[in-house]
Amino acid sequence: MNRSRIVVLLIGLLLVGSVSIAAAEPKKIPGWADAMQDMEVFKGALSKALGDETVLLTYLPGYGVVFVFATYHDDISLVQRQIERALRFIVPAVSLVPSGQKLVIAGRYDSSRFDSVWELMYVSTPTSSGDPNTWTIYINRLSD
Predict the structure, then answer these.
(1) What is the separation of C-alpha 131 from the centre of its chain, rounded to a whole number of angstroms?
(2) Quick count: other Cβ atoms within 10 Å of Cβ 130?
(3) What is the widest separation between alpha-carbon atoms in the chain?
(4) CA angle 99, 93, 103 (to 5 degrees)
(5) CB hemisphere CA count around 133 (13 angstroms)
(6) How many helices (H) and strands (E) does the chain have?
(7) Quick check: pTM over 0.85?
């Protein structure tokens, strides 16, 4: 291999290396701290409505806010009532979520014997979460 090819190859490798370094640089979500303060209010209300369950939340840029919990209640209708009660009051608590993005509440129940496993998910938009007609509800059971 002649010298000019080696130089071109090294330059190419340096360019590829610098591009991959730039692509891996983390980004910040504008307004994240304010949005999280906003969401913590609803997280506390949801946790209380579900009987002090641990509720986790995150904001997914471009998608919206996702709340996730595991419950010890095997009665899915009880959990549904509690989520729906909380959803009706969520609109003021999600004012900082950009328009058009989603609001998701997802919960899961696992019995100790795995004979009753279910997942429940509500998908809405922050501006319409007070209207039950706008909710998309998913119920999945392991036995189905």
Answers:
(1) 20
(2) 14
(3) 75
(4) 50
(5) 0
(6) 3, 5
(7) no
Encoding tokens for residue 90?
């969520």
State how far the Cα of 17 lies from the Cα of 74, in Å rounded to an integer: 52
Cβ neighbours of 16 (radius 10 Å): 10
3 state SS for 80-130? HHHHHHHHHCCHHHHCCCCCCCEEEEEEEEECCCCCCEEEEEEEECHHHCC
How far apart CA 42 and CA 48 sit, in angstroms, is 10
**Which of 70, 64, 71 minimizes the C-alpha distance to 39?**
64
pLDDT, one tens digit per residue, over 89-139 is: 665 556 667 778 888 899 988 876 666 788 999 998 877 777 888 889 999
* Residue 112: how many other CB atoms lie within 10 Å: 7
